[in-house]
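Tip: read the tokens left to right.
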């Protein structure tokens, strides 16, 4: 059996050098980052197509590791392709700091990701949220997790669980990932 591929799905702006996703990419085996054509003015259609293309190109089981807008990408991909044959490759998803795409002050550049799809995900999923994330209130993140059929964990007061959170390679996140595998 082929090893599980970890497919990284960064959010708006991509994940820079101090972000835990970038550190995981450098330090873990079988990690692939989905590259988007436009990180700062994303089009939902293009992001979903890039994820679908990446999944079609991979052999063996896949775990999605999404951050922020990447979580919305997972929901939108599932809504459009969740019943396709290659969807069976997905064995899980770690959805970290989901962005509330319906929030009044959400960046206009990514507005076509709203409304957030609320369908049950057809694979094992874990949502990790912060108690002080300015891009998604904790009750909203918990509501996403419930609707997606995902386990829900609160990481504490970690902001948006990004580079500014100073988590390094985020050992607790790696534990959530290990639980999915």
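Filled-in amino acids:
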């Amino acid at each position: 059996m082929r090893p599980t591929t970890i497919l990284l799905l960064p959010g708006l702006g991509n994940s820079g050098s101090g972000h835990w996703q970038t550190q995981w990419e450098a330090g873990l085996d079988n990690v692939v980052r989905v590259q988007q054509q436009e990180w700062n003015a994303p089009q939902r259609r293009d992001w979903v197509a890039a994820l679908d293309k990446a999944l079609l190109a991979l052999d063996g089981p896949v775990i999605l590791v999404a951050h922020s807008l990447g979580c919305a990408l997972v929901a939108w991909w599932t809504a459009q392709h969740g019943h396709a044959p290659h969807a069976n490759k997905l064995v899980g998803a770690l959805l970290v700091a989901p962005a509330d795409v319906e929030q009044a002050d959400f960046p206009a550049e990514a507005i076509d990701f709203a409304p957030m799809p609320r369908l049950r995900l057809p694979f094992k999923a874990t949502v990790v949220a912060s108690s002080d994330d300015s891009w998604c209130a904790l009750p909203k993140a918990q509501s996403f997790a419930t609707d997606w059929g995902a386990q829900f964990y609160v990481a504490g007061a970690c902001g948006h669980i990004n580079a500014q959170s100073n988590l390094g390679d985020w050992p607790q996140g790696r534990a959530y990932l290990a639980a999915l595998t």
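Strands lie at 5-9, 31-33, 62-67, 90-96, 124-129, 151-154. The chain has a mean pLDDT of 96.
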